[in-house]
């Protein structure tokens, strides 16, 4: 499992901190599964 801190990067596994409005900035902490080819 890789832990990435990104801004508004779409992912099935993201825990957003701050605004949940996609039109505003939000910090997302995402847990990516290397076996998932659609993780990025």
Helix-strand blueprint:
Layout: E1 2-7, E2 14-17, E3 27-32
Antiparallel strand pairs: 1-3, 2-3
Tag the structure with descriptive keywords.
single chain; 40 residues; mainly beta; three-stranded antiparallel β-sheet
Provide a brief overview of the structure.
With 40 residues, the chain is an all-beta fold.
Query: Could you give the order of the helices and strands?
Result: EEE
Low-pLDDT stretches: 25-29
Can you tell me the overall shape? elongated
Domain module count: 1
Helical run tally: 0
What's the end-to-end separation, in Å?
Answer: 14 Å
β-sheet strand percentage: 35-45%
- How many strands appear in the DSSP assignment? 3
Which secondary-structure class do the elements indicate? mainly beta
- Walk across the major sheet and give the strand order: 1-3-2
Walkthrough of the structure:
This protein is mainly beta and 40 residues long. The protein has one domain. Helices cover 0% and strands 40% of the residues. The protein has no helices and 3 strands. Strands 1-3-2 form a 3-stranded antiparallel β-sheet, with no helix packed on it. It is elongated.
